[in-house]
Amino acid sequence: MKILNLYSGLGGNRKLWGTEHGVTAVEFDPSIAKFYQDHFPKDIVIVGDAHDYLLNHYDEYDFIWSSVNCPSHSRARFWSSKPNDKVKPVFPDMKLYEEILFLQHYFEGNWSLENVIPYYGFLIQPSIVIGRHAFWSNIKILDFESNDADIKNGNIDEWQNLHGFDISEYSFNQRRDKILRNCVNPDLGKHILDCAIDFEAVRKSQESEQMMLL
């Protein structure tokens, strides 16, 4: 199966996918992309804009995972106990909903888009919410008990242990705690891919049965 892994980050979602699939990862930050390439040397890693890459290459893949940048949607923007101590106000990044609508109407393969539970009401209802993650998808995603990172009170050592990554010898262009907090738990990433594989197997079986009836 050809998989497109957009906004790949360190590769938390991809960590347990194995090597039997052809994976192309797109990451904008070259320092993060280097970590990904070092840990997944068989993957094709593209340093570039994942949003643009999706538009131009979506039809080359069987399964697409997208984790659109989440900070502008996150409830963490309003966690401060001090009323005036909030991060700088920004417009929510609408690439999230652009990609949902694009994949719904143009992509013929299977796809799953992951993001945080937002501080506002969902503009498009997700297929399922698992832990702190919302998923929009055209596959049936089964519920799953995810061991999420404690992004409010955790620390770098805890997040490294949770994801099985050691970033101590790498230099990044972004804050190290932010990069780790953005990781999807590897077990959850594997669960989503397994659901996609099972969904595709059922679809092909149903198509085969229909052909036999013709």
Task: For this entry, give a set of tags.
214 residues, alpha/beta, Rossmann fold, 6 helices, 7 strands, 34% helix, globular
Structure description:
This protein is of the alpha/beta class and 214 residues long. It has one domain: Rossmann fold (3-Layer(aba) Sandwich). The chain is 34% helix and 16% strand. The protein has 6 helices and 7 strands, in the order E-E-H-E-H-E-H-E-E-E-H-H-H. It has helices at 30-39, 50-57, 95-106, 156-163, 176-181, 186-213, and strands spanning 2-6, 22-27, 44-47, 63-66, 110-116, 128-130, 133-137. It has a 7-stranded mixed sheet with strand order 3-2-1-4-5-7-6, sandwiched between helices. The relative contact order is 0.17.
Question: How much beta, percentage-wise?
Answer: 15-25%
- How many individual β-strands? 7
Alpha-carbon distance between the termini?
28 Å
For the largest beta-sheet, the strand count, sense and barrel status come to: 7 strands, mixed
Instruction: Give the count of structural domains.
Output: 1
CATH architecture: 3-Layer(aba) Sandwich
Reported by name, the CATH topology is Rossmann fold
Q: Return the average pLDDT rounded to an integer.
A: 91
CA radius of gyration is: 18 Å
Structural category: alpha/beta
CATH class bucket: Alpha Beta
Label the overall shape: globular
Helix content: 25-40%
Order of strands in the sheet with the most strands?
Answer: 3-2-1-4-5-7-6
> Which consecutive residue ranges, at least 5 long each, have pLDDT under 50?
none
Total helical elements: 6
Order of helices and strands: EEHEHEHEEEHHH
